[in-house]
Amino acid sequence: MLGLAASTARKALDALDEFLTAGIPIVVPEPSCLAVFRDEMPKLCPDDPRAAKLASLSRSLSEHLEVIGWVAPNAASNQHVSIHPHCHQRAVRTTSSDERVLSSAGFDVEVLDLGCCGLAGSFGFQKDHDALSRQIAQDRFLPGIVRSALDGPVILDGFSCQLQADELAKLPTTSTAELLAELLQTEQCVR
After folding, report:
1. Residue 109 Cα to chain centre, angstroms
2. What's residue 143's pLDDT?
3. Of 23, 159, 174, 180, which one is least surrounded by beta carbons within 10 A?
4. What is the pLDDT of residues 32-58, one digit of tens each?
5. Order of strands, edge to edge, in the sheet holding 108-111?
6. For 85, left (φ over 0), alpha (ψ -120 to 50), or beta?
7. How far apart are CA 97 and CA 111, in angstroms?
8. DSSP string of 57-81?
9. Residues 101, 183 contacting (CB under 8 angstroms)
10. Alpha helix (H) ranges present in 2-157?
11. pLDDT tens digits for 148-181?
């Protein structure tokens, strides 16, 4: 399906063209999409210079906040949060930015190492992979996030990780963006 992937990549480049031409950073909250923009699109479209431009302009939310020098207006009073990085998040090395941004916003951050959620990509959505997907999740991921949720919010920025936590453990999780938005709303209520 590489032809379909390349065609879809070109459509995405067309949709982002004016931003790429203007050199505007592209903030990508989903780690899988960020990995595609940074790593896979330049390989799928090596003859299109916009793919390399997109790779250079794509940032996670935390990377963008660091680049612009964002400072939280209200500290989180050392509230404990746990981050389970999505597999693609580890691949594009954005976890340290998340940790720094959340720490500077006043959170006590713990980065978890719980392996794979078992759902990533289309793998877990294929009926014949369902049992294995669940087995992978039960190995370390689900017990670890359930245990971590006892101490405070669990941050899962990857859609697949969020879906596994919700479907298999009925565990509400949050994302970096949602947690920071909540902190900002708290600040507005205090004023």
Report:
1. 16
2. 96
3. 23
4. 899 999 999 999 999 999 999 999 999
5. 108-111, 80-83, 154-155
6. beta
7. 12
8. HEE-HHHHHHHTT---SS--TT-EE
9. no
10. 2-22, 31-35, 41-44, 49-57, 61-67, 87-91, 95-104, 130-136, 142-149
11. 999 999 999 988 899 999 999 999 899 999 999 9
Q: Are 86 and 32 in contact (CB under 8 A)?
A: yes
- What does pTM read for this prediction? 0.87
Name the nearest CA neighbour of 179 among 154, 162, 145.
154
Q: Which phi-psi region, left, alpha or beta, contains residue 185 (left: φ > 0; alpha: ψ -120 to 50)?
A: alpha
Q: What angle do CA 116, 121, 124 make, to 5 degrees?
A: 70
CA dihedral 164, 168, 170, 175 (to 10 degrees): -10
